Amino acid sequence: MMKFLLRLVLFASLVASASTASLAQGFTSDRQIDYLLGPGDVVRIQVFQNNDLTVEARVSESGVISYPLLGVIKIGGLSPTDAERLIARRLKEGNFLQNPQVTLNVLQFRSQQVSVLGHVRTPGRYALETTGMRLSEILSMAGGVTETGADQVVIMTRRSGQVERIEVDLVDMFASGDLSKDVVLTAGDVIYVNRAAIFYVYGQVNRPGMYTMERGMTVAQAIAKGGGLTLRGTDKGVRVHRRYGNRTVQVVEPKLDDPIRPDDLIFVRESIF
Predict the structure, then answer these.
(1) Model-level pTM greater than 0.85?
(2) Residue 73: pLDDT over 90
(3) Is residue 27 part of a domain?
(4) What phi, psi does 41 have (nearest 5°)?
């Protein structure tokens, strides 16, 4: 149930992101204000009532573009608003225009990116379209966590020159409503969604095999996940082959309401009557 709720929230976030993306070409407002331009970004520059000065350009590795009348201009490291002011000032100082009204829109965000790996629907590199983008936004852009994905996400990031490993429990984050756990990402971060914990059930069950483990799942629930008992099966004397930290495997006979552990192998016996 919790996994369903999680995916529902991520889907809603995905829809919200898609709505925002549909406005990308008119990106004149808040989302561009604090974005810093960098290599690979594609921008469109327009000057009111001067169509000859409309240009689409890609920011070079050195952070510069070539612009009519002005030649090479360094806009890397500037926000779109600051870049607009720079170009307007240069046009005015060069006596090309008296009061230029410059608009710069980012068409492709390429310089500020994060990587999303593991059990998401569309792994890959994604642009931070503004500073302050959070983990949930990027996960929604990647299509959300798959059914085989874990509830915990690992973020590898560099903060204050040091590499840090941050773990985020998605279910806890959404269930508690504590958005402070929704980490703000920075360029270069790597997000990894591990495989969800699994268990195995075999013997006298209708669908023996490997299954994804849910939180708090009991032995009885695990057997039910495997299709329940066959006509010849019994829930008496169920055995669990359990691996411990030192790789030692022990056989235990748990109660039906005992919780299972990751990688448990559950064997359901045949009834002797």
Answers:
(1) no
(2) yes
(3) no
(4) -65, 140
Q: d(Cα 36, Cα 20) in Å, to the nearest integer?
A: 19
Written as one string, the DSSP assignment of the chain is -HHHHHHHHHHHHHHHHHHHHTTGGG--SHHHHTPPP-TT-EEEEEETTEEEEEEEEE--TTSEEEETTTEEEE-TTS-HHHHHHHHHHHHHHTTS-SS--EEEEEEE--SSEEEEEESBSS-EEEE--STT-BHHHHHHHTT-B-TTEEEEEEEEEEETTEEEEEEEEHHHHHHHT-GGGSPBP-TT-EEEEEEPPEEEEEESBSS-EEEEPPTT-BHHHHHHHTT-B-TTB-STT-EEEEE-TTS-EEEE---TTSBP-TT-EEEEPBP--
Alpha carbon 203 to chain centroid distance? 39
Is the per-residue pLDDT at 6 higher than 70?
no
Report yes or no on 24 lying in a domain. Answer: no
Q: Is residue 28 part of a domain?
A: no
The pLDDT score that the predictor gives to residue 160 is 79
List the CATH number of the domain containing 44. 3.30.1950.10
113, β-bridge pairs? 127
In angstroms, how far is CA 137 from the centroid of its own chain? 7
Q: Within 10 Å of residue 194's Cβ, how many Cβ atoms?
A: 15
238 domain residue, yes or no: yes
